[in-house]
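job 3f2a | input accepted
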Amino acid sequence: MRPLTDSVPKPLLRAGGHPLIEYHVEALARAGIDRIVINLAWLGGQIRGYLQDGSRYGVSITYSEERPAALETAGGIFRALRWLAPGPFLVVNGDIFCDIQYWRLRLAETADAHIVLVNNPPQHPAGDFGFDGKIARVRAVGSPSFTFSGVALYRESFFEGCVDGAFPLKPLLLRSIAAGWCTAEVHSGVWEDVGTPERLQRLNERLGGGIST
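job 3f2a | predicted structure (213 res):
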């Protein structure tokens, strides 16, 4: 996303006149989720300065620092578990735009993860996982596949055996899938991985704005 992110963290890039992360905070508040934890890494102080304690959105925001370096997706979630556990919790990537209805998501008693999948975008045609209508599957060559949206519900047990540090999410998802503990659903509405200036431009055009920081 450089050069846009040289001076602004990706979640604060604006689409339709608002920072990407603000859309999520407002959607979470509408869903009745009033306690939010935000992981801070690159230029994270700007996110804290913009959202502050969350009171103007009707929520309470806690910040988890990924110091001295970014912890990758799973590492960041694991460090924040002290505020998220013991019950199931929702994770939303800060650099996506979507209209997923968070309040509708459910985690089965027998599952430790429930992931939201989307149809494969042009930049990721192979997808990430298969899906049989209920349970996520390891992607098989030649079979229908879907892309992980970055939105999911987890239990603390999903991170069993992990230690503090930087580590990716996908190996843990594959472990959960192999055990039959990862359910899934497909979202067919709006979803955009805002990973390049070009995709941000398309999103701004969709929302009636221009690229701004």
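job 3f2a | The chain has one domain: 4-207.
job 3f2a | closed
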